[in-house]
Design a protein that fits this description.
364 residues; Aspartate Aminotransferase, domain 1; 2 domains; 7-stranded mixed β-sheet; Aspartate Aminotransferase, domain 2; alpha/beta
Chain lengths: 364, 364
Amino acid sequence: MQAEPEGFDRVLSSMCTEPHPVAREAAERFLATNPGDPGTYPTVAELEDRAITMLGDIAGLDDPSGYVASGGTEANIQAVRIARERARTDGIESPTVVVPESGHFSFRKAADLLDVELILAPTDETHRVELDAVRERVDDATALVVGVAGSTEYGRVDPLGELGEIAHEAGALLHVDAAWGGFVLPFTDHEWTFAQAPVDTMTIDPHKMGQAAIPAGGLLVRDEALLDELAVDTPYLETTSQATLTGTRSGAGVASAVAAMDELWPGGYAAQYDRSQANADWLATRLADLGYDVVDPTLPLVAADVPTPTFEALRDEGWRISRTGTGELRVVCMPHVSRSMLESFVEDLAAVSGRTPTAVPTDD
Amino acid sequence: MQAEPEGFDRVLSSMCTEPHPVAREAAERFLATNPGDPGTYPTVAELEDRAITMLGDIAGLDDPSGYVASGGTEANIQAVRIARERARTDGIESPTVVVPESGHFSFRKAADLLDVELILAPTDETHRVELDAVRERVDDATALVVGVAGSTEYGRVDPLGELGEIAHEAGALLHVDAAWGGFVLPFTDHEWTFAQAPVDTMTIDPHKMGQAAIPAGGLLVRDEALLDELAVDTPYLETTSQATLTGTRSGAGVASAVAAMDELWPGGYAAQYDRSQANADWLATRLADLGYDVVDPTLPLVAADVPTPTFEALRDEGWRISRTGTGELRVVCMPHVSRSMLESFVEDLAAVSGRTPTAVPTDD
């Protein structure tokens, strides 16, 4: 096999990144292990316990329960599944889930899979969910309210305290999707942790801003009993039940998550947040100088209304970029995204658009 | 992080194994790629196409569709999901799935997740599903009939041709679980492929007997339209839809699957099958000589009625062994399981049980 992977030198679209060197080393060392079979692979199973403890530290949860999932999609699916099972136990036959329209598309996948009704709540001009709209959509059939802590499109954090109140008043759970945000939010003023808001379950992925190797997602639950909603019996394995969605799982992901968190929490992640946020602020300023409407980057993620022909021309230059649902250019300032990459990107943008700083736009 | 993974020198329980050196190398090279985002990581997305083509070669399917899943559990879940969606399109409100009692527990997980009724069909004295029992359980509500090609407990292959006829007469699909068996069955007389039986969907995992790195499961479908049942829209990604259960996926798994199949299909896998089967036959003979009832290993997997105290004593000696649902010792002759390992295991078994070849049993 001669194929070589692309480098990251033009990747501005991904919410994953190059694993930290210690994370890569651990992934390679634990490549042939399976935490899904703890009787056979006990060392990596112990590492998973450590990963959950550390994720709890980051997310403000003493005595956390959870597991290292294949990624944020699995964790979001499992959160919806927990809520569905719990609602059924409470006699709700057709449970619903209220999700901000800024929620990741994995919630649509979860609803399809799990046969629950997904009810979208609109966001306001700040791209956070409208609380009144959530209130209108929550009723006795609501099993789960979702809040986003670092949205995929604009890096926004929903008002989680209020969402939790609304959910709990209706007897529903609050799930927070911090898949991408969880490793930058600790260094901001946002309120997002289990300690700061009445969060029941959370998605927080080491393989995104946590700089672990793929696959290393995270599901945390405040109350261990919530995990029991997921358990199925396991013959053949020398353990009695399994709460994960998948069976065989990646020990590489687990080991690399622990290695990355051991190395980087909290100082390394704080420094990376500072670099990424400074890069996002710099890029937002440059894009505004070129005359684009820019969505203020409250986390290290920049969106701007770059027209499709310009977007396509940048892709033709080799830039790996993506768009929001409404078509804006979206740049995620991951650890591999350096200032010099962004300088080169802005140069190319100026060239393909014919724009110069403070000049009148010519490409739209 | 100082933890080191256990070696494989006493692992007799796992259906995974050490990845082949070329598979390990490819996994390490593609560690930082994500086939779930083909717009950003096009090379690994192309490798996934190649993986599916090669899996189709192995499983007798020209022009195959499918994807590299996180493992057999995901592939089995998705097969049930395809059948559920298709049944609903046909107006079946409460679809059922008929699964041999020898089916993997992932089908129970799938049924729980997807809210379909799982109907178990008993197996006969040869540990294959009873066709009459399947016929009795299939009706207008049946969405899927499952056949196992290499069962987890005894390595048995169900009569897939007949199961397909029963399924199709009822308007249902046939799914074959060849997660473990798919890389040894090509070298046997069993009829299990898409070419030999009316199979609609199949699970076939490179990370088991295929010697790829975890996570590399496989889902194959005969008709590409079946995959459309799984598709959800994907904003943010420069592709339009996604049929996988997870979002971010492991490029390491995909690349290592291609590397292993390029290296080993068919000659290397054939040689490995010969070694593994010879080891299983040797172990079965030794266990019978010690006076145990042994289930004839038709594939490289040996089960025998070793009593619990002996089983526990072997675990105390460091052997990683597991049991069938009815409590028999179960040894999977994976590529890492050598003759000398088995000789050492049989010596320990004789020592802890107090049995000698042809002597009267003393441990039960």
